[in-house]
Amino acid sequence: MDRLHFFTPVRIARGQGYPVEEVDSVSEAMVFLRKWPTGRRGPVYQCALNCCAAAMSGKMSAEEARKAFVGFARITRLLDDDMALPLGGAPMDNVYALRR
After folding, report:
1. Residue 71 burial by CB count (10 A; 0-12/13-18/19+): exposed, middle or buried?
2. Whole-angstrom distance, CA of residue 78 vs CA of residue 22
3. End-to-end CA distance of the chain
4. Could you give the CA distance from residue 54 to residue 17 in angstroms, rounded to a whole number?
5. pLDDT over 90 at 85, yes or no
6. Cα(24)–Cα(100) distance, rounded to whole angstroms?
7. What is the reported pLDDT for 84?
8. Sorting pLDDT into bands at 50, 70 and 90, what band is 38?
9. Which distant-in-sequence residues (6+ apart) come within 8 Å of 19 by Cβ?
10. What is the mean pLDDT of residues 77-98?
C-alpha cells in the first residue's frame, strides 16, 4: 500500500441528493481542501491542509493527516453519519446526544 493512502477512507456526505464521497488518500484530501471555499477556510481547515502537506513531504504519517482531515470534516458537518458513530459498542441512544 502506498504510504499516502489511508487505512480507512474518510466518507464525506454533502447532503441529501448528493452521493457519499470516499477520500482514500492524502492527495485526495488535498484536492478536496483546495476546492473548499476561500471564505470558509478557518483554523481547522488550515490545520488539515498543513497536516496533509506535511504527510506529502514525509514529515507526518498519512494516518495523522487523516485524523486532521476527519476533524475538519466533522467540524464542517461533512463527515458521513456512519463515520461519526462512537467506537467500542457504545449504546445507540447516546449517539445523537453526543453529536448535538
Report:
1. middle
2. 11
3. 37
4. 34
5. no
6. 28
7. 52
8. very high
9. none
10. 58
Q: Look at residue 93 and tell me whether its pLDDT is greater than 70.
A: no
Judge residue 73's burial from the number of C-beta atoms within 10 Å of its C-beta, 0-12 exposed, 13-18 middle, 19 or more buried.
buried
Classified as helix, coil or strand, 21 is strand
Q: Which of 84, 86, 80, 99 is nearest to 11 (CA)?
A: 80
C-alpha 98/C-alpha 94 separation (Å) is: 6
Cell reading at 15: 447532503
- What's the CA gap between 82 and 92, in Å, rounded? 12
Q: Is the pLDDT of residue 30 over 60?
A: yes
Residue at 62: amino acid letter: A
Q: What is the dihedral of CA 95, 44, 26, 65, to 10 degrees?
A: -80
Q: Give the span between the Cα atoms of 69 and 30, in whole angstroms.
A: 9
